[in-house]
Amino acid sequence: MRVFLILLAAFAALATGCGEVWNDPYPASERGKSILYASFVTRPKHLDPVQSYTEDEAQFTQQVYEPPLQYHYLKRPYELVPLTALEVPKPRSIEGGRFTVYEVRIKPGIRYQPHPAFIPENLNLEKGRVERLKSPYELPMGTRELVADDYIYQIKRLAHPRLHSPIFGLMAEYIVGMGEFAKELKRADTRDAWLDLRKFPLDGVERVDAHTFRVTLNGAYPQFVYWLAMPFFAPVPWEAERFFAQPGMEAKNFSLDWWPVGTGPYMLTENNPNARMVLERNPNFHGETYPSAGEPEDAGAGLLADAGKPLPFIDKLVFSREKEGIPYWNKFLQGYYDTSGIGSDQFDQAVRVSIEGDTNVTPEMEEKGIRLSTSVETTTGYIAFNWLDPLVGGSSERARKLRHAISIAFDVEEQITIFSNGRGIPAQGPIAPGIFGYREGREGVNPVVYDWVDGKPERKSLDVAKRLLAEAGYPGGRDAKTGQPLLIYFDTVVRGAGDKASFDWIRRQFEKLSIQLVIRDTDWNRFQEKIRKGDTQTFRLGWNADYPDPENFLFLLHGAQSRAKSQGENAANYTNPEFDALFEKMKNMPNSPERARIIDRMVDIARADAPWIWGVHPKKYSLRHSWISNDKPNTMARNNMKYLRIDPQKRAELRAAWNRPVLWPLTLVLLVLVVSAIPALVGYRRRERMAARPAS
Predict the structure, then answer these.
(1) In the structure, what pLDDT confidence band is assigned to residue 325 with cuts at 50, 70 and 90?
(2) Of the four, 252, 390, 523, 673, which is 20 to 30 A from 190 by CA?
């Protein structure tokens, strides 16, 4: 009997384990509904639009908040279009160009999501009442119309002394009076009460009427219009700040960082950032429609099938936190997540690359109907030469040839293949694809590093690099005058155990030229300090576009932006008088043939000087199941959820087909159980019969 009971327990445990494989992990109430299931890895820290900046934060805030403008979902290059505004505002120069004015007119009739902040009684809650709340949505909720004052209030919040907006410094440079306004707020802030920003005027931002506000900038700054498409300029009603400033709210994590208040297509209704976050359709959403035009190939791809239809198409967005990649990937293959990125461990299982370099999904993915989307990101990664360093920096012919030699030897194509599974394209200069001024084909190739051979760029040979190194005074990697080996220092940040392979590979690139590379790894703060002081020789950095304008890349090489001299974004401290003069001329020009000619010349100068090893523009790969439509990558915005459509019936059918119970292991265990139990039962019956015999 003991053997029988043990086997029975094992059978029950196995049955339970197998049951977990085919059981749907989501509540039965959600099945068959228009719900998108996705995941997030990093816990969002800030959902307040004045601070929200990371990609994980943006995927939540950009579904809730609505700035005046947005990027057209389908058109490329990226094009600004109205969101809550009636039109894209045009700059108006006044006082002989001393100031520039943007007047933003908001569509009337837009209303906020339901929220307790719009009920006056909820602005004076007793602390005990707050402490009993599990969610702010347990209180009575109201709404009101979006007005110009809400945008003005948010712009003022960029200078709030208790908040830390990453764009305050830039905006203080341009918005008239912003710097002095910040000082006034700091003087007035007692930190023990709500700071009502309505009481403090900001010279450069004014109300024209209920649905119009005006922003005045110092000088000309045509890129300002792009900031009007970012959450930093999304409206925040004063009532929301007042509501969350009440005693007891902070202790309950009731704040704009946890519970955003917006006019967008979705509202955050569940926030457990360690496990699950839920966005549901905003019942007051103002009825934006799906775009009716796009790129030439969009119609054939089915991306215009919903043209003119009201948004959003999905009722609910459920985000679950997945700390490990393997469980997440398996759930995607089971159909429990609707979309997925592709990690390095899953790349070979998901993607096949043809001899010609074309990418598609593997037969396994194709059989499931899984589709692949790719897009080159408006990002550049590079290795910088510190222009202030006497060895690798400066404009001398010796230093220039040294940088050219290293740039040729540094095999970016191999780097992309080994460390990114081919997900990237070699950079030919500072400007990323999709940005005005980026050149395709032969005219876009960097002639310092590449030759054009058989219709494609080909990296110059190592012999060319060695010749340049010798001309620089270092034949065979040794100083021609002293005979000492050439030693170069490379500063970087340690991110994990996997960095060793990357560091070894970088070291080998320099060894091709017999250059000894000393890698100085450190933590992020120390690394930043060394760059700020100009105490580096070479180092690795990257840049992700804030907005799709070449100025946002070329300023990284502008002399006036030197990190060591002015704490700007020019971390290489590069300077070239002609480049700098052309930048000043180009930066405020509208896109035109003349601007393109200036940019071409600037790129030629930068290529010749080679302050960077032009590295990689990453390529983003994403997978989606066949029941999702209208999915088009957009590297400039994360407000794409409102455009997506889901076929929940098809999803339910495929989930059921892919996750049918696998019963043969249970059958086998049952058979073993029966066979194993037979001897025990026979022995038990024998003992029973013997015990029943009368004593002789």
Answers:
(1) low
(2) 252
